Every structure is written in C-alpha cells, then in structure tokens.
Amino acid sequence: MVIEEEMKEKFYNIDCLNKETAMKLVYPFLFVIFVILLGCSPIHTDNPEKAFKYWIHIPLSNSEVEPLKGEYWQSGHITLEYGAYLQIVASKEWRDELIRLNDLSVDTTRRYCPNDAPNWFFPPESFIQYQSSNNSQFRLWIQEHGDTVYIYDQQL
Fold first, then answer.
1. How many CA atoms lie within 13 A of 32 on its CB side?
2. Are 104 and 98 in contact (CB under 8 A)?
3. Cβ atoms within 10 A of the Cβ of 104, count?
4. How many CB atoms lie within 10 A of CB 135?
5. I want to staple 89 with a disulfide (CB 3.0 to 4.6 A). Which of 30, 66, 99, 116 is the partner?
6. Does the predicted model carry a pTM greater than 0.85?
7. Average of pLDDT values for 73-92?
8. How far apart are CA 27 and CA 38, in angstroms?
9. Is the dihedral of CA 92, 47, 38, 41 positive or negative?
10. Residue 35 has pLDDT above 60, yes or no
C-alpha cells in the first residue's frame, strides 16, 4: 500500500511537471502563430499620404514631398509583394536622389504605362520617362519644367 501511494505521488508529480512544461511551450507557440497571422494581412489604400508612406518604407518629413494622388497594395503573404502608383510634388534634390539611389536612366525607347493603372495615372507626353536598370517594374516620370512626379513600382 505504501509503495502504491509512493508510485501515485511520483506519477502525479511527473504529470504536473508535464502539464507545466506543456503550458510553457504552448503560450509562446500560440503567440508566434498570432503574430504571423496578424502580420500577414493585406494592405490597400487610395489615400495619397498613406500610399506614399507604405511605398517609401521609411518615415520622411513631408517638407520635400507632397503626395497628390496615390494607390498602394501589398499582399498578405510572408514575401513582400506590392504595387504603387503615385503622383507627387517633390523638390529637385529629392528627385535627383531618387534617380541616383535607384540607378535610373532616361528611357526614350517607348512610352510605357501599366495595364492596371488607376484612371488618374497617365503621365503626360511632355514628362521625361525614367527606367531602372535593376527593376523593370520601377518607372518614374518627371515634369521637365516643374516639380510633378509620377511613380510606378511593383514587386511580385
């Protein structure tokens, strides 16, 4: 009888230990699943300010850039898939830096406009068209004598 009670006590302690250990593992696992599911929600906005902020991925003061029109979408996948259409007013310094950082060059081959562009996204013929040598889905149109810029960027 004494042996039987000792055995029950040992099994009870092991059982409690397993429950405690299991709970210590379950809570972090549930937290990770929650974060993954929450982080995988898609984004879509027609708000120019928000579209610009999502596209630029870094906080900037709007002293050099004023978003006029914009559309941005981002998939809910773990991989970063997005599309951005922007019409902005930007300082010459900001435009020059954008051209330099993205290795853009003037594209005179043919006028390009994405098929799925919003109805407001039609850069005028008088704008200078730029293309990235690194990313065929990144285009830029800059007003020759002004500060209006159209941006198209897509990553799939």
1. 5
2. yes
3. 21
4. 14
5. 66
6. no
7. 90
8. 16
9. negative
10. no
